[in-house]
Amino acid sequence: MTMTSTYKVDDFTLDFLFGFETKGADVVERARRSNTTFVRSQDHLAFFKEGATGRKLSAYEALENFGIEKLAELADYSSAILPMNKFEPSRTFKNQISALGLKHETVAKRAKISKVDVLNSENPSSILPIQTLEKLAIALGLDERFISTRNATDVTDNIAARLKALKNNIKLGAETVQSFAEASWVIRTQLRLRKALGAHSDVTKIFLKDSDYNFPTWKKGYYLAEKARRIFNIPANDAIPSLRALCESAGIPLLQASLSKSIAGATVDVDGHRGIVVNTEGNNANVWIRRSTIAHELGHLLWEPEDRLTEVRVDDYKEIDGHRNYFEIEEKRTAQFDPVEARANAFAIAFLAPPNAVQETFEAYNDESEGLRAVMVKFGISYTSAKYHLNNIKGITISDQPHSFDKTPTDDWEGREAYTDVFYVIDDLPALRRGEFSAWVARAEREKLISVDTACTYLTTDVHTYLNKRDTIIELFTNQE
């Protein structure tokens, strides 16, 4: 049963649930205005009373999670039974752990609970604190709101299968698998809160997925880059000052995580909603390489049809650095040629550094080294990217520069791209939940869409710290207002 259910509830019951002062509005609006606090455990939903140890929920949250019919049951009987059957939530947890191919001790470490609790979560006769189950659900990429009430793997089955396949095929470590699982939860939650707060539909819906990978693939990548810049209203010859800011304004979740060192980033699709995960390890420490990674993933996220993207598409540094020779590889049609990656590579470099603008910038200098450095600094691309991009668009070979040549990014690029990934205000906040996600959580709590209790769970902090930091978190992202 959902908030939009046709189930009829009389005004007396609605007054009892949400307070007489909310009278006159529809059910959803009454819940948004209500000061009623509910509380849930593994098995039951009730009105909150002092001393209750379960998860506190705002009225809107309770309505969204359980539906008006379940709240009416609560009004009639003082509490409502939550489990959909005797096997939940144990069956969901057992199936998800198995689907991800993870060991219990690995899951326990990630969720910061005991191995015994993980084992007990799979036992239908065990009752655990709801906070413990929520930590476990989030670590596994499950929707913690539906513990006991639904088969919570309905949305994540494909993701779990894909991650397990990647774990076996390209030897993803267990920690990386769990990072992607949790990333799927962050993406889904961020987009849900964003929508509930009335944010405009993300601009990515304008992009019609393109299945053309025909030879020459790089030309299609260039074309899609030019088209994307037009859609984003980026002047043809301008640099993109911040891909982080672009993703935020477009409603694209951009997350960071500590992954296996060979992985640059990934595009994650959660039930049709896409986000980007960027590795904080390895070459991405260089902001200009990190920009190439993000642009490459945007090439997948914006243009790739479902059958090419799959639920999680993982890219390593070798694939993303492949633009250096994509003309040669494509001409020879070698075994290593991947049209999906070739198109994303061509898209990335042309999106960041439009060919005509790059050529104009380079040719403004008589000295090759000065021209090369000018291209790097203006467009925020690495030495390798700039060198081979010039080679590709001008057909000339840029000589290897001496050791004295400055390949380091300028501080302004790092400041614009890192921003809240570095300057976050809650200590020990997991990397995946820094940045824009934290602001959507704080705004949702302020608008009573979620409780303070839920906000603290999402941001892994205590009530005192959260309330002291809430306004600062929101102010860091004033563009959300």
In short:
With 481 residues, the chain is of the alpha+beta class. The chain has helices spanning 11-18, 27-33, 59-77, 90-100, 104-111, 115-121, 130-139, 157-169, 174-196, 217-231, 243-250, 287-303, 306-309, 317-320, 326-332, 339-352, 355-363, 368-379, 383-394, 411-418, 436-446, 452-458, 463-475; strands at 37-40, 44-47, 55-58, 79-81, 254-257, 263-270, 273-279, 312-316.
Going across the major beta sheet, what is the strand order? 3-1-2-4
Residue-averaged pLDDT: 88
| Low-pLDDT segments | none
- Please tally the β strands and state the result: 8
Main sheet makeup: 4 strands, antiparallel
As an assembly, this protein is single chain
The helix tally amounts to 23
How widely separated are the two ends? 31 Å
Shape: elongated
Give Rg in angstroms: 25 Å
Helical content stands at 40-55%
Number of domains: 4
In terms of DSSP E residues, the strand content is 5-15%
**Helix/strand/pairing category:** alpha+beta
Describe the 3D structure.
Helices cover about 50% and strands about 10% of the residues. It has about 475 residues and is an alpha+beta fold. The chain folds into four domains: about 10-80, no CATH class; about 90-195, 434 Repressor (Amino-terminal Domain) (Orthogonal Bundle), CATH 1.10.260; about 205-415, no CATH class; about 435-460 and about 470-480, no CATH class. α1 (about 10-20) packs across α3, α10 crosses α16 and α18 (about 370-380) crosses α19. It is elongated and about 80 Å long. The two termini are about 30 Å apart.
List keywords for this structure.
four-stranded antiparallel β-sheet, 8 strands, about 475 residues, 434 Repressor (Amino-terminal Domain), 4 domains, four-stranded mixed β-sheet, alpha+beta, about 50% helix
